[in-house]
Design a protein that fits this description.
Pfam families: Crystall (PF00030). The chain has about 180 residues and is mostly beta strands. The chain contains 1 helix and 14 strands. It folds into 2 domains: about 80 residues, Sandwich (Gamma-B Crystallin, domain 1); about 80 residues, Gamma-B Crystallin, domain 1 (Sandwich), CATH 2.60.20.10.
Length: about 180
């Protein structure tokens, strides 16, 4: 997953970097043994995806270097963080094909850059499958990069459940450029 000496995230149980803390430098599928709640995070280096539940499930939050003194600062829905993974830097261009039906069916649209409003650009909001051929991407539930977030690494996603969503609704799409 890259050079772990260059990535570090610190989780704090209380707001404003108080209370018990846990420092992490690589992906972890179960953080619950290290802390019971998470109300602030400091990203010293690297880019991270943190997840509400164990094994990279539940709400997802993309974090880059900086201080997040309370969970609202990372657009958190609650103080629950149970797993995390390092997002490695992608060299080169970005390319993704999105489809209106599962298993790459019906109309396909190509993306090579950020899309602040899927509906304004393509006149649909439901993405049922996609193929991320180059780069790492984030799907957002609402336009202009708001709402729930979903990480898509390079690969094929045959159904919206494959990227962790309960619905095919996608409002905006952003490339991860770190």
């Amino acid at each position: 997953m890259g050079d772990f000496n260059q990535t570090k995230i610190i989780f704090y149980e209380d707001r404003n970097f108080q209370g018990r803390s846990y420092e992490c430098s690589s992906e972890c599928s179960d953080l619950h043994s290290h802390f019971s709640r998470c109300n602030s995070i400091r990203v010293d280096s690297g880019a991270w995806m943190v997840y509400e539940k164990n094994n990279y499930l539940g709400y997802q939050y993309f974090l880059t270097k900086g201080d997040y003194p309370d969970y609202q600062r990372w657009m958190g829905f609650n103080d629950c963080v149970r797993s995390c993974r390092v997002i490695t830097k992608h060299q080169g261009s970005h390319k993704m094909m999105i489809y209106e039906r599962p298993d790459f069916g019906r109309t396909k649209m190509e993306l090579t850059d950020d899309c602040p409003s899927l509906y304004e650009r393509f006149h649909f909001n439901d993405v049922h499958s996609c193929n991320a051929t180059d780069g790492h991407w984030l799907f957002y539930e609402h336009p202009h990069f708001r709402g729930r977030q979903y990480l898509l690494l390079q690969g094929q996603y045959r159904r919206f459940h494959d990227w962790g969503s309960l619905s095919p609704r996608v409002g905006s799409i952003r490339r991860i450029t770190i």
